[in-house]
């Protein structure tokens, strides 16, 4: 018994190196400790004549559900249809599923693959003599023990790529909400412009008829009639153009929505801004940009590149593979299942160490580090683009109301001028050219006001989008979703 005990102890000591290697497999990776780079943008939004004073919660846009931001039920219905049916968004969501599957494939590679086998053979040894053998085995083949975290680094890189695709999908959702809203508003504005062109054409037709009668009476000249016809034909051309534009606007909406919808969901005219969209404060701090989905996607890509450095470094160190099988063997298949078989096993560890590879492993590390620096620049560029988008939207927000007020006054003045000029013309005081000039000025100013009203509404939508709005669900906050994504990643 003492001899057996001594032998057992010696075998235990021999297994210590293998046990130590297995413990090393649980150590941290060789990837650098990740630290988010400093955002290369000012902490405060720009200030100056173009910018209104900002106030309010910096996270107001991100925490405001789009159903609360957009108050028109027809537009809400179209947006929901688009979120359910838009084909580009579907492709993006499938990219997320593909990235998740790729991560699970890589994570599964960290675990040994265990296979079971059952085999039997019968062979002739010599004349009149046959040999039978049967085996039932369970084992793993060439399982790489992750001594230096190469596989764990690769898994982390895949996980971060998956999370980046999730954030990309969230960004696509925000973009789609904005595109549907802008397309809906553009259709409304073009319908307003079409109505205005029709009204102008009718007024021009009436003026043309009056001029024709005055020509017959010898009061007006053919020059006056030709001028009246010019205005009428110009308005008719605008009617044709806006009719086409309205049809194309509807086609654009149909493509974005991804299915047929009832025309009752379409606007008949451009609505008032206060009744359609909520106003969004930008807040004072620009760090709200770091929670935008596109910025988060860039950061996850950066973290993936960081993990890839660890995998590249691990390639320069020894690797240990293990093949092991165990089972039962007998000369008869039946003995395997009745307890008459003998035990068989094999254990074959394999250690390999790179000695000379022409510098390829070192170059791979340099490549991974360069890709990381590239990802840093991409993240910084994304943050800067986000800052510029918000700054541009704020600059328009700060001046658009002044422009609206001025153009509204212009339209009122032009309307009064046209009414007076037309009355003076009808009473024979002024020539038709004065009335015609006033009509053209009124028409142009009305078109400009419609376009500026559209720009005002579009600016509100843009500001909501670039501040990260559109993800929060009713009665929830946007902060819960990234956490859910990370928890889902951890749980597989």
TrEMBL record:
It comes from the Bacteria. Its main location: membrane. The keyword Mitochondrion does not apply. Gene3D superfamilies: Outer membrane efflux proteins (OEP). This is Efflux transporter outer membrane subunit. It is found in: Cell outer membrane. InterPro entries: MdtP/NodT-like, OMP_efflux. PROSITE patterns: PROKAR_LIPOPROTEIN. Keywords: Lipoprotein, Membrane, Palmitate, Signal, Transmembrane, Transmembrane beta strand. It is a lipid-anchor. Residues 1-31 form the signal peptide. The keyword Oxidoreductase does not apply. One of its GO terms (molecular function) is efflux transmembrane transporter activity. The lineage of its organism: Bacteria, Pseudomonadati, Pseudomonadota, Gammaproteobacteria, Oceanospirillales. Transmembrane segments: none annotated. One of its GO terms (cellular component) is cell outer membrane. Belongs to the outer membrane factor (OMF) (TC 1.B.17) family.
């Amino acid at each position: 018994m003492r001899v057996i005990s001594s032998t057992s102890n010696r075998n235990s000591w021999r297994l210590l190196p293998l046990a130590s290697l297995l413990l090393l497999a649980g150590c941290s990776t060789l990837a650098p400790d990740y630290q988010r780079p400093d955002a290369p943008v000012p902490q405060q939004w720009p200030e100056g004549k173009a910018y209104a004073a900002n106030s309010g919660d910096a996270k107001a846009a991100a925490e405001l559900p789009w159903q609360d931001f957009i108050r028109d039920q027809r537009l809400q219905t179209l947006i929901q249809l688009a979120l359910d049916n838009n084909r580009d968004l579907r492709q993006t969501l499938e990219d997320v599923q593909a990235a998740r599957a790729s991560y699970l494939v890589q994570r599964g590679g960290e675990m040994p693959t265990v296979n079971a086998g059952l085999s039997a053979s019968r062979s002739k040894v010599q004349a009149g003599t046959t040999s039978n053998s049967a085996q039932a085995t369970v084992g793993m083949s060439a399982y790489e023990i992750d001594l230096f975290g190469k596989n764990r680094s690769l898994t982390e890189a895949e996980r971060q790529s998956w999370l980046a695709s999730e954030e990309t999908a969230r960004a696509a959702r925000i973009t789609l909400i904005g595109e549907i809203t802008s397309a809906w508003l553009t259709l409304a504005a073009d319908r307003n412009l079409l109505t205005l062109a029709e009204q102008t054409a009718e007024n021009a037709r009436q003026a043309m008829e009056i001029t024709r009668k005055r020509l017959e009476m010898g009061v007006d000249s053919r020059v006056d009639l030709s001028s009246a016809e010019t205005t009428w034909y110009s308005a008719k051309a605008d009617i044709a153009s806006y009719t086409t534009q309205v049809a194309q606007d509807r086609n654009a909406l149909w493509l974005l929505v991804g299915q047929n919808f009832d025309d009752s969901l379409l606007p008949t005219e451009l609505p008032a801004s206060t009744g359609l969209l909520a106003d969004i404060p930008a807040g004072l701090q620009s760090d709200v940009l770091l929670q935008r989905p596109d910025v988060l996607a860039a950061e996850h890509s950066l973290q993936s590149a960081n993990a890839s450095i660890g995998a590249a470094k691990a390639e320069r160190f020894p690797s240990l593979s293990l093949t092991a099988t165990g089972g039962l063997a007998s000369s008869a298949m039946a003995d395997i299942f009745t307890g008459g078989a003998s035990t068989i096993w094999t254990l074959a560890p394999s250690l390999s160490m790179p000695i000379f590879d022409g510098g390829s492993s070192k170059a791979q590390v340099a490549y991974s580090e360069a890709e990381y620096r590239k990802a840093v620049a991409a993240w910084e560029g994304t943050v800067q683009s986000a800052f510029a988008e918000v700054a541009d939207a704020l600059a328009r927000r700060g001046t658009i109301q002044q422009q609206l007020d001025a153009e509204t006054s212009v339209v009122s003045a032009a309307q009064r001028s046209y009414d007076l000029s037309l009355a003076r013309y009808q009473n024979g005081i002024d020539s038709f050219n004065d009335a015609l000039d006033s009509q053209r000025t009124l028409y142009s100013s009305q078109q400009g006001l419609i376009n500026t009203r559209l720009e005002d509404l579009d600016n509100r939508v843009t500001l909501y989008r670039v501040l990260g709005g559109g993800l929060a669900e009713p009665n929830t906050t946007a902060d819960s979703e990234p956490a859910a994504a990370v928890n889902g990643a951890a749980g597989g």
